[in-house]
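DM from R.C. (forwarded with permission)

"hey, sorry to bug you on a friday — could you get me a structure for this? deadline for the figure draft is monday and I only need the backbone to look sensible"
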Amino acid sequence: MRGGAWWRHRAPPLTVPGGKLISALDSVSGVTPRSLFKTFALAEVVTWALLITAMIVRGVGATDALVPIAGGVHGFVFLTYCVVTVIVWIDGRWRAGRGILGLALSIIPFATWPFEVLTDRAGLLSRTWRLGRGGEEPGNVLERLLAWVLRHIALAAVILAALVVVVFLVLLRLGPPVG
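My reply, with the result:
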């Protein structure tokens, strides 16, 4: 590719009727901060339900086989929810207290869903990416990093997924959170 490395290439800006610029992530997949956060907040609730059900099944003596499976799925979704929370926190300029609360509530069964509902009602889950292509200029190092992620979504998704997998495997090697 002329003009530099392929990962530095920028596609031309995309517009919607009315001329508004949108990020590559919005245009390609329809993924917005709101839809991304809602998806993973719900996934966290569902995997909590699966894990608790598996623990009940183990508790009544039916089988132990479900707990490692449900626990693994829940662990992966938990880590991904945390990454998504940080991404939406930075893009949405949440106050630190809300971002920390969003992360902390992920360890309480079913708490991510009411948090998502209240955050959405407060108008803090945007339907567009503030730092995406054509959006605001990033103001600090975290915003610059997120802006790069949003503007190079395919490469960033592979890197973020790989990081989540590595953290997941390290935690899996260390053992379950509760004996």
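R.C.: lifesaver. The first helix runs from residue 24 to 29.
me: no worries. The helical segments are 24-29, 33-59, 66-92, 96-104, 112-121, 141-151, 153-174.
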